[in-house]
Amino acid sequence: MNGRIETRADPAALARHVAEWMTSAALAATGAFRVSLSRRLDPKTLYTLLASDGFRGRFPWTRVSWYWGDERFVPHDHPESNYRMTREAMLSKAPVPPENIHPVPADGTPEEAALRYERTLQAAYGAAVLDPARPLFDITLLGLGTDGHTASLMPDDPVLEERKHWVAVVSHGRPEVRVTMTYPVIESSRQVAFLVAGKEKAAIFSAIRAGASQAPAARVKPVGELIWFVDMAATGER
């Protein structure tokens, strides 16, 4: 498989390890630091930890900008909103400047929201074309579905072949319409990290690890480093 694997005993240990890794990376950087977030990684554990006493005072919140790799097209206060979950778990409890928070728009049509978010990303990047030598993100966090999807890149969806647009609409495969970053944007990152926990992920992780899967997650090939943070249950060893 592409990338290196780092294993911890359980989800709690995994979240603490990733929180330390993120904090170290952000502290080591100079200037602005951009992070793309994911919902599919037991994120409340990680996000709550970052906003806890052990990390809140160490993390360089004022230099870090937050984006979302995908989002359900629902209002920001909806129970299924990825933005709402992150806000409640972390952003509302940490000293995050409001101008550093960049949720996916939730008004208008899904297509309009995708276009507006694409323009937000291009404005942050300073160009409409991605340069492999200059990644958009410093860290991109991704989860892994049991069907091998990541962000809202679903198996057999046409969005998997999208290379022009930075953000696209996914209108089938799930009950709600979603807006997702496409491969070129997800891969434009200095470090892409999958967080994989739970025995229900063991089968798909094993297939990806063996190079025997063409699932969306297996096709992620970042311009920077790829890391798989995995707990023991997801490795199938426990």
Structure, described:
This protein has helices at residues 11-28, 43-50, 53-56, 82-89, 110-125, 183-186, 202-209, 232-235, and strands at 4-8, 33-37, 64-68, 70-72, 101-102, 137-142, 167-170, 178-181, 189-196, 225-231. The chain has 238 residues and is α/β, with parallel strands linked by helices. It has a 7-stranded parallel sheet with strand order 1-10-9-6-2-3-5. Strands 4-8-7 form a 3-stranded antiparallel sheet. β9 (189-196), α7 (202-209) and β10 (225-231) form a beta-alpha-beta unit.
Topology:
Layout: E1 4-8, H1 11-28, E2 33-37, H2 43-50, H3 53-56, E3 64-68, E4 70-72, H4 82-89, E5 101-102, H5 110-125, E6 137-142, E7 167-170, E8 178-181, H6 183-186, E9 189-196, H7 202-209, E10 225-231, H8 232-235
Parallel strand pairs: 1-10, 2-3, 2-6, 3-5, 6-9, 9-10
Antiparallel strand pairs: 4-8, 7-8
State the distance separating the first and last CA atoms. Answer: 21 Å
Number of contiguous helices:
8
Major sheet: 7 strands, parallel
Largest sheet strand order:
1-10-9-6-2-3-5
User: Could you state the order of secondary-structure elements as H and E?
Assistant: EHEHHEEHEHEEEHEHEH
Strand runs, count:
10
Q: How much helix is in the residues?
A: 25-40%
- Shape designation: globular
The low-confidence parts are: none
Q: What average pLDDT do the residues reach?
A: 94
Strand fraction equals 15-25%
Radius of gyration: 17 Å
